[in-house]
UniProtKB/TrEMBL annotation:
It is a peripheral membrane protein. GO terms for cellular component: extrinsic component of mitochondrial inner membrane. Pfam families: Coq4. Its cofactor is Zn(2+). GO terms for molecular function: 4-hydroxy-3-methoxy-5-polyprenylbenzoate decarboxylase activity; zinc ion binding. Belongs to the COQ4 family. It is found in: Mitochondrion inner membrane. It comes from Penicillium oxalicum (strain 114-2 / CGMCC 5302). This is 4-hydroxy-3-methoxy-5-polyprenylbenzoate decarboxylase. The gene is COQ4. PANTHER family: UBIQUINONE BIOSYNTHESIS PROTEIN, UBIQUINONE BIOSYNTHESIS PROTEIN COQ4 HOMOLOG, MITOCHONDRIAL. Lyase that catalyzes the C1-decarboxylation of 4-hydroxy-3-methoxy-5-(all-trans-polyprenyl)benzoic acid into 2-methoxy-6-(all-trans-polyprenyl)phenol during ubiquinone biosynthesis.
Length: 285
């Protein structure tokens, strides 16, 4: 875990070029009337125009409704190529743990993680923290959409892995799933992964209330910048192997600070507003 992030060498970059000969020949013959066969189950090949339309449509739709996970997923895939998903794949290839993940190709579901077992782990363990976070937020690891629009089969798995690990990032940081928490985590992910979707998601800032904007700008955005710039490559964490590790120890290894407790902050503000309202009612009576 101490060497989660290491730069790829020139030789490795040559070995992991962004396009394989097969992908190149496929692109040359690609058209709406001559669509190539899928590269993996569920794959939907797109022309450049189709990919651009998908990116614009999903970006606009997810800005209107940030809860549309399907649109956010489509935006992530449409904007990840031709460079960014390959950079993330190369980061895994340049790391021993990342290479093992690519070889093993584990999937994160409620069955593979055995949620009943995670709930029996020590309270401050990574697995128990993850299970507690899922229960508190009312979400499940089984709800992640399958990758469809990334042509390279290995890179499609990298995107799937990132998508399924997202809730672990939430759990380790303690950030909830409402807009403030999501934007704080997306800011950290952007600096850590460079995936454009994570940065584009920050435009949802315009939909936040004035008090939320102030909290985000003064508390959670500075936290995200600090942690995102110095953190290890999160894609190289083999979460299935660290479930019993102390979560504070893992944060230290990843160079991620624990952010201010957003739920506690909102609770304190609601209590303050309630007291202020009661004080004004007493004054007017």
């Amino acid at each position: 875990m101490s060497a989660l992030r290491s730069p790829s060498s020139r030789g490795l970059r040559k070995l992991t070029s962004h396009r394989s000969p097969l992908a190149t020949s496929t692109c040359r013959s690609f058209s709406i009337l001559n669509r190539p066969k899928p590269n993996y189950p569920g794959h939907v090949p797109l022309t450049t125009i189709e990919r651009g339309a998908l990116a614009l449509g999903s970006a606009f739709g997810s800005l209107i409704n940030p809860r549309r996970a399907d649109l956010i997923a489509a935006l992530g895939e449409a904007t990840a190529t031709p460079y960014f998903i390959y950079r993330l794949r190369d980061a895994m290839l340049s790391n021993p743990t990342g290479r093992r993940i690519l070889r093993d190709r584990p999937r994160i579901t409620s069955e593979t993680l055995q949620m009943s077992y995670l709930r029996t782990l020590p309270e401050n363990s990574v697995g128990r923290t993850y299970a507690t976070w899922l229960d508190r937020e009312g979400v499940s690891p089984d709800t992640r959409d399958s990758v469809q629009y990334i042509d390279d089969e290995e890179c499609a798995y990298v995107m799937q892995r990132y998508r399924e690990c997202h809730d672990f990032y939430h759990a380790v940081t303690g950030l909830p799933i409402f807009v403030e928490g999501e934007l704080a985590l997306k800011a950290l992910e952007f600096l850590n992964t460079l995936l454009p979707m994570t940065g584009l998601s920050l435009f949802a800032f315009v939909r936040m209330k004035p008090a939320e904007k102030e909290r985000f700008l003064t508390l959670h955005l500075p936290w995200a910048i600090r942690s995102g710039l110095k953190s290890e490559e999160l894609i190289n964490v083999y979460w299935e192997e660290v479930l019993e590790k102390d979560v504070n120890e893992l944060r230290a290894e990843l160079n991620i600070e624990q952010p201010p407790d957003l739920r506690e902050i909102r609770k304190m503000m609601r209590q303050q507003q309630k007291r202020e309202k009661e004080r004004l009612e007493q004054m007017s009576s």
